[in-house]
Specification:
Blueprint: E1 2-7, H1 17-30, E2 35-43, E3 47-52, E4 55-61, E5 63-64, E6 72-73, H2 77-87, E7 91-94, H3 100-111, E8 116-120, H4 125-137, H5 140-157, E9 163-166, H6 169-177, E10 183-185, H7 202-209, E11 217-220, H8 230-244, E12 249-252, H9 259-268, E13 272-274, H10 281-289, E14 293-296, H11 305-312, E15 316-319, H12 323-332, E16 335-337, H13 343-354, H14 358-369, H15 374-393
Parallel strand pairs: 1-2, 1-7, 2-4, 7-8, 8-9, 9-10, 11-12, 11-14, 12-13, 14-15, 15-16
Antiparallel strand pairs: 3-4, 5-6
Helix pairs in contact: 2-3, 4-5, 8-13, 11-14, 12-14
């Protein structure tokens, strides 16, 4: 049986895009014949969970990061080697870039030297987590130096890998310029049956409008951190209220390091709501479909699953000027691109979009999202897996 093993320290039980990717991937492989998919899940204890003859979750006890994060970190040979010995995979996919790629490569070399090694570039970390914060704290030149050092580190981590899967063309081009292993474009998908405008809940709409049919309504279900733009959103709120002569209804869902600031804003403003982490896709679709527009403010997304889900529900978007957010907004003609990353610029962009031909942009958003599906994503991926595995075996 063709066997795939996934390792990913970016998995989190309350995560966003990475969690959605793995859940959809598990759903796909659970329905396949003659393929065994094994997901190695960082957890509080070690045990095996057999979901079906074609899907197994290997829970591995791993260190948990403190604070509001729920990430755990696999990094020891003793956590990795037993899985490889047990399943002898044809394909090993590593979805996080810190230490794990090297440790997996070393374990695979000893146990399954013919297994093909692939990465999935879920986070453009040299830009997102290195260059940007360093430049913000120091200056542009220091940020660029640290970015180049991070790409050097990535080349070391993924040395000997047979390829890197990427879902954003802008990011793929950058990886090729930076000398990473060969990139393969694997666009992710969207459950367009689950996420659709028909999930609109008129009771929720009226609750958010609170007696004013012209009240702007926004749903922001992203990680509460600077990268996702939560500070921009909270900073723009008073500006929006003043320019619109009405407090918008802002629904915030999720968690993250800026959760205290979110709770402070909720305490100050009656039309800002915090609904916690939403685990139900149906509930997410209900909120997406019941608001006026969406915000895709991270300029460092490698695909932006939540952006596509919002668009599938018929939401026009204010999108960041770079990364997958810009790619989705430009190619769909379903929104506007944010210029400067300032609260005022965001407020202006939201108002411009709200007062534009919003209905047509909503239609454009839905039509664009319909081009993507999870089954297409994983069929394309499985074909890639088999091609690379055959090539590796025949070397």
């Amino acid at each position: 049986m063709f066997t795939i093993v996934d390792f990913n320290n970016f998995w989190s039980p309350s995560g966003g895009g990475v969690r959605r990717y793995h859940l959809q991937k598990m759903d796909f492989y659970q329905r396949q014949n003659e393929v065994l998919s094994v997901f190695v899940m960082p957890d509080s204890r070690t045990f095996t969970e057999k979901k079906s003859d074609n899907l197994i979750i290997e829970h591995v006890k791993a260190f948990r990061f403190p604070g509001n994060w729920e990430y755990r970190f696999i990094w020891k040979q003793s956590q990795i080697q037993p899985v490889l010995r047990k399943y002898r995979p044809d394909i090993i996919e590593v979805g996080s870039p810190y230490i794990l790629p090297t440790v997996v490569r070393m374990a695979a070399k000893k146990i399954v030297p013919k297994a093909a090694l692939l990465s999935f570039w879920h986070a453009d970390f040299p830009i997102t987590y290195v260059e940007r914060p360093v430049a913000n704290k120091t200056n542009k030149l220091v940020g660029e130096f640290c970015r180049d050092a991070a790409f050097w580190y990535a080349r070391q981590e993924f040395r000997g890998y047979d390829g890197i899967q990427v879902s954003c063309k802008e990011v793929m081009n950058r990886l090729e310029r930076k000398g990473l292993p060969k990139s393969h474009w694997i666009p992710l998908g969207c459950d367009i049956q689950m996420f659709n405008p028909g999930k609109r809940d008129e009771t929720l709409v009226q609750q958010l409008k609170d007696g004013n049919p012209d009240r702007l309504t926004i749903f922001f279900p992203h990680r509460f951190c600077e990268e996702k733009g939560i500070e921009l959103v909270l900073g723009a709120y008073d500006i929006l209220s003043e320019k619109l002569n009405c407090e918008p209804a802002l629904v915030l869902a999720g968690t993250g390091p800026s959760l205290p600031q979110v709770k402070e804003a909720v305490a100050r403003h009656p039309h800002i709501q915090y609904v916690g982490f939403i685990n139900s896709a149906d509930e997410m679709a209900r909120y997406y479909s019941s608001v006026d527009l969406g915000l895709a403010l991270s300029g460092w997304e490698t695909f932006g699953l939540s952006i596509l889900e919002s668009m599938a529900c018929g939401n026009a978007q204010v999108g960041a000027a770079t990364g997958a957010a810009a790619e989705h907004v430009r190619e769909s003609e379903a929104g506007t691109i944010l210029g400067k990353r300032t609260p005022k610029s965001l407020a202006d962009a939201i108002i411009d979009l709200y007062h534009s031909n919003l209905q047509q942009k909503k239609l454009n958003a839905r039509a664009y999202a319909e081009k993507f599906s999870w089954d297409d994503c994983f069929r394309r991926q499985l074909e890639l897996y088999k091609q690379i595995a055959n090539k590796k075996r025949n070397k």
